[in-house]
Amino acid sequence: MKRKIMGAALFLVLLMMGVVTVVPFVWMVLSSFKTNAEISALEQTLLPKAFTLENYATLQSNFNFLRYFGNSVFIALVVTALVIYISCICGFVLSKYQFKGKNLIFGFIMMTMMIPWSVTIISRYTMFVDAGLQDSYLSLILPAMVSGFGIFMMKQDIGALPDELLEAARMDGANEFAIFHKIVLPMSKNSISAIAIFQFLWVWEDYLWPYLMIDSEEKQLLAVGLTTFNGRYSTDYGGLFAATTISIIPVLIIYIIFQKRFVAGVAAGAVKG
Predict the structure, then answer these.
(1) Domains along the chain?
(2) Taking the alpha carbons of 237, 238, 239, 243 in that order, is the dihedral positive or negative?
(3) Burial letters for 93-112: b for 16+ Cβ neighbours within 10 Å, e otherwise?
(4) Angle of helix 249-271 relative to helix 65-96, nearest 10 degrees?
(5) Residue-wise pLDDT tens for the chain (273 aa)?
(6) Neighbour-count burial of 213, counting CB atoms closer than 10 A to its CB (0-12 exposed, 13-18 middle, 19+ buried)
(7) Count of beta carbons in the 10 Å neighbourhood of residue 60
(8) CA separation (Å) from 62 to 24, 36, 222, 239?
């Protein structure tokens, strides 16, 4: 009986948290079909009183939305692919090879996860500006291509692979390159899926670093571009809601693609070692 009560209480708490999370999102999507006058009115309704597509129709002409959207998709995909590949290589080396200083290297990687981004942002900004990478996509890709979190997860996951399997491949004549690409990567899909979701979200939602490093409008990312809806005296809430609604679509697509392996990947990275 006590277990049933605890289960029901937990269900209600999770339900309330779900409602609190989902309702603002639903309100934003529905508000993207409202006029600015209706959005700013004192009396608010969930459904639009006067349904309009003008906010979506004027996005490109008023905002250059497709340019910002394409830039963000490009950077997010490139960084995510690099992080996955580099994390898999590092995880493979750190878990399946024995060499002097391995634990020291892994400890240093784990230490980087404990340093807040705000602590290093000034020195990092100065370094990239001095290197001539201001207003370059390399300034966004290079600092994000190595992830301590990704290396940790892949080390845990790949470390659980049987050594006998890799030794059998070596005896059959497979080199390390083939073992990594044909055995290790296919057997690490769960953790790769988890890293892909996390990394894509982090890059897609990043605002401060692109704001500091990218100056030209044609290279700017969507997260920074959305701030152009905020004028000095007013805000185009309808356009902002429409652009934000569309910007969520890539995140949903990535989650739908990888969600079957997402939970398994997180669990694998947490308990294996």
Answers:
(1) 64-271 (1.10.3720.10)
(2) positive
(3) bbbbeeeeeeeeebeebeee
(4) 10
(5) 778 888 888 889 988 998 888 888 899 999 999 988 888 888 888 888 888 888 888 887 777 888 999 999 999 999 999 999 999 999 999 999 888 888 899 888 888 888 777 778 888 899 999 999 999 999 999 998 989 889 998 998 888 888 888 899 888 888 989 999 999 998 888 888 889 888 999 999 899 899 999 998 889 999 998 887 776 557 788 888 998 899 888 888 888 887 776 665 555 544 444
(6) buried
(7) 12
(8) 25, 15, 14, 9
Residue 68: both structure tokens together: 């910002």
225: its two tokens: 């571009």
